[in-house]
Amino acid sequence: MDSKAQELELLQKIDRSKIPAHVAIIMDGNGRWARERGLPRSAGHKQGVETVREIVRYSNYLGIKVLTLFAFSTENWKRPPWEVNYLMSLPEQYLHSELPELVKNNVRVNFIGDRKRLPQQVCAAIDKGLQETRNNSGMVLNFALNYGARAEIVQAARLLAEDVRQGVIGTDITEEQFSAYLYTGRLQLPDPDLLIRTSGEYRLSNFLLWQLAYSELWFTRTYWPDFNRLHLLQAIYDFQQRERRFGKS
Ligand code: V07
C-alpha cells in the first residue's frame, strides 16, 4: 500500500472531532540518523528541520491547536561548539523560509525557555516570529529553546515568592495559581494531551514535567528525520484508543 493510501486509511479511522488539542514532541534521533548514513550530525539536524516543516503543516491541517516542539534543551550546551553553533543557526533559517507561510496560515509562533543564554541572532529571529504572528488566531507553534522543566519550575517558585513577599498573593498557593507562573501558564497554553518521543528513548528528559502530569505518552523507534505524517496519524489514532482517566479510578 502506498503512503497516500495509508494516510487516507488512518484519516478514516481517526475521529476528527477528537484531535488532541495540544501535542508536544521530543524530536530525538537526528545524530543517530546521520551516523547510520555516514553523514555529519549537522545533516541529521538539517533533515530534522525538514520534518519540522512537514509536521507543522500537517498538524495545522489536522486542527491541532497547540504544537510544542523541544528544539534545544538546557543540557544541549554540552555538545561540541560547532554543533551548538549549527543548531543556533536553525531558528533563523527555519523562520526565514517558513514565516510567510505561517503568517498566511494563521499560525501563531510562541516560545518557551530561558532567553538569557541564547545568542542575540536567535533572540532576534524569535522576536520577529512572535511579532509577525502575534495577531494570528490559529494553531500555536510553540518552540522550546534552552528549555529545562526544573529550571522553569524553580523560576516559577522565585516569581511566586516575590509576589508573596509583595503581598500580591497569600501563601495558600493552589495548583492553578502555581501553573500561572510557568512559561505555559503565562502564555495560557493548555497542558499537552499527547507527548510523542522519537528514536526509541523512554524518558522525559526534563521536558514539561509539570504539564505532562496527565498526558498520554507515545513512543516510536523512528528517528526524527524519518518521522512523517503517518507516524503522527498513528500516534493520534492510538491516543484516541486510550481512555484518559486523569487520576480517577
Ligand atoms: C532545531 C531541528 C529539529 C530536530 C531537533 C534539533 C534540531 C526548528 C527550530 C526552530 C526553533 C525556534 C524557532 C523556529 C525554529 C530549531 C533548534 C534546532 C535549536 F523560532 N528546528 N530546530 N531550533 N532542530
Which descriptors would you attach to this protein?
six-stranded parallel beta sheet; 9 helices; binds ligand V07
Q: What does this molecule look like?
A:
The protein is of the alpha/beta class and 249 residues long. Among the domains are: 83 residues, Decaprenyl diphosphate synthase-like (Undecaprenyl pyrophosphate synthetase); 36 residues, no CATH class; 52 residues, no CATH class. It has a 6-stranded parallel beta sheet with strand order 3-4-2-1-5-6, sandwiched between helices. The protein starts with a helix and ends in an 8-residue tail after the last helix. The model has no long low-confidence stretch (mean pLDDT 96). The site of ligand V07 has 19 residues, from helix 3, strand 2, helix 4, helix 5 and strand 4. Ligand V07 binds next to helix 3, strand 2, helix 4, helix 5 and strand 4.
Question: What's this entry about, in short?
Answer:
By secondary structure, this protein is an alpha/beta fold.
Gyration radius (Cα, Å) is 19 Å
Give the overall silhouette: globular
Unreliable spans are none
Number of helices: 9
Order of helices and strands: HEHHEHEHEHHHEEH
The quaternary state of the protein chains shown equals single chain
Question: Using DSSP, what is the number of strands?
Answer: 6
Q: What is the rounded distance between the termini?
A: 41 Å
Main sheet summary? 6 strands, parallel
Portion in helices: 40-55%
The CATH H-level homologous superfamily of the domain at 44-60 and 75-140: Decaprenyl diphosphate synthase-like
Strand content: 5-15%
Mean pLDDT: 96
Strand arrangement within the widest β-sheet reads: 3-4-2-1-5-6
User: What compounds are bound to the protein?
Assistant: ligand V07
Q: Please give the CATH architecture of the domain at 44-60 and 75-140.
A: 3-Layer(aba) Sandwich
